[in-house]
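May I ask for whichever protein you like with its backbone structure tokens?
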Amino acid sequence: MKQYFVLGLMTLVAALPLANIHAHELSKPSGKVILTVSGSIKNTNTPDGTAQFDREMLMNLEVIELKTETPWSEGVDSYRGPLLRSLIATVGAEGGDLTVTALNDFSSVVPSQDGEEYNVILAMELNGVPMSVRNKGPLFLVYPFSDYPSLNNEVIHNRSVWQIKSIHVE
């Protein structure tokens, strides 16, 4: 009897990682869509195979507050939003590079590893106020410049896209 229990338990444990391989649908946005994720993703919520997010859905991911200086403002500001790695995990991204595109169609390629290595966020609030398009919103990819001065360089500045509308996973 003990052998069957151990064998059954081993089978169950071996099957657990397989549960994460299968795609599942995300909930559908109930508010205005502010971000669309496409490309090599497993978890979608549209017939065309993309993942669309409204503000509430994004704020239900792993959200942090990041206090940092940026090259585009004076002094330390407080940014709040979901971690990039939380978004990538939620959509079941399988790629390595992310093409982040702004409302004006400016885009930059961001290695997904940046989100794993640093607390990179999709900032939605600046100093406690929701970010508007006029103020680099609705989403601004913010790196922890104050925590890692080595990030304060032209390559990372170009990855810090604001007014983000979409992310394509390569």
